[in-house]
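INTERNAL AUDIT FORM
Audit reference: QA-55
Scope: verify that the stored structure record matches its stored sequence.
Auditor: D.O.
Record contents follow.
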Amino acid sequence: MVNNSSQKISSSIAKKFLSGVNNSSHRISASIAKKILSGFEQHYQNIKSASIEAKRCFEEREWEKIESDSKLRLNFYDKQVDNFCKKLSSELKKQTLYGARAEFIAKIPYEPTHIEKFNSEFWKKTKLMYVELITEHKQPELAETFYNSVFCRLFSRSFYNTQYIFTKPSVSLDYIDMDEPVTDSYFIENDQLKNSFTSILTSYFNKSSFGSLEQDIQRLEEQLFTQLPRLESDVFEIQVISTPFIRGKAAYITGKIVSQLHADQPLLIVLLNDKEKGIYVDSLLTDVGSISIVFSFSRSYFFITTDYPSAIVEFLKEILPGKTRAVLYSAIGLHKQGKTLLYRHFLKYSKVTSEKLIIAPGIKGMVMSVFTFPMYPYVFKIINDQFAPPKMGTKEMVKDRYYFVKNHVRVGRLADTWEFSNVAFSMKDIDNALLTELKKKAGSNIEIEGDLLIIKHMYIENKMTPLNIYLETATKEQQTHIINDYGKAIDELINSNIFPGDMLTKNFGVTRQNRVVFYDYDEITLMSTPIFKKIPKSRTYEEEMASEPWYYVGQNDVFPEEFKYFMLPNKFMKETFNKHYKKLLDAKYWVSIQEKIQKNGVMDYYPYGTEKRMCEIYGENND
């Protein structure tokens, strides 16, 4: 058994502190702490139930329900915290514990708590009681985050410090006693690979669910040795996470290959489920780059069923070292924990860096102001008070667009965001030009309190190189690749029922995997909204040369042939784009996509190249 020394230290500190309090106070603190933990456990049970249901839906091919449940899950956390806080607020009033926001149920936002009424000692004791409760918990890190959410929902920002909330972990995740491991291991020697692959696949789904299991096993063996020929003469072990990762219409078996003489190799088996064919293997991925794209921040979250999410994240971190834990927690559907880790990372970074927060490189946005530390891997985005012409709309409309993207099925071309409220930045970290910019453009969204700048509402997003800046310094070869991916990104977006709106290159970013991702959401909408038209021929020379169009332009009218004038800056880039994506300049193509979506729904997308699909490798037509 692993030594739980760090947990025992935390527990002993709590017991020592609590030994001096009176029994009545101790009893109330214990009761409140238990109630908060019970609220968290109810939330996590909801998450697990949704994941179990997602696996059933994959087996039964209930694709619409998976999509619907995926959207519902995004709101599980806030709804549970809201409902729990209403009940807890009433309990606190019964105990005459001052400090909880009065009228919690009725008023949003709430009036700040007066510091002289805050029961400081009580909440210090309650936190320590909570530490003792979660010392041997299976999800201590998530339980801490839930406690923080409850406290911050009940009390004003002046109390958000380490005495009352978890600004850093209190329980080490390295020493959690697991009832059972989160991985299964298969030792491979003496031609046992086929048997092992059979055991792996049938440990997730019934053998009868597979339409051609023997063929799948044979192909897995062939492709593994093709991709990693050294394994044919090697003794190795396959370790796989014991829960499937469900997303969209696919299930993923995630693992790694361990051998004595080589570094661990990631492994991803992709399963699809067809009405005629049953469950079958669609792809085998063994390179970090390809698997990293599957777990990209630009894709929707997975459903997984586990009691030990921290162990899952650590396993994923081992095979995908370039991913942060914040991104990985979000990827497995625990986006609130991802948000917590992201904020802690920001606090730590801001303490150790000598960098100043600056206006982010690139063309300034008309709707949002964006800033960052020069070497920080994320950017901060806040909505301006007023939008520069020709942009129109309100702050609430922009927030709605971001919420829309969060809830939409993301196929790898829409950046994920984390939404924050009342974030404090040290004034000493802020560049003068940035402070002037924020005061001018977003004055209503900021407050200065002593040596702190408080931003009332903002988004944090992965930092990417703006596409227009990337193209300025790229070689011709790089330009060719990225322009083709720019066209592919637009094509995939519209086929996934997303009309980006403003498709200027400045609104797209280039990721570390050299993929183009869209990140400007103020004009984003469903494909059913625009009316795509061809520009009518001018009747006279004067009409053609006029500064204003000679044809009627409705509010939702879009003329794709105009895109060529602003999409790319020079002849080479335009020709490169036209070689494969000239169709995006034709209104007929856009209309055909609208008709296809209306008739058949959104087409299937695979987070890996078609060349990696078994049907492509073995010359079949799966679609």
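Auditor finding: record pair retrieved intact. The chain has a mean pLDDT of 90.
Action required: none
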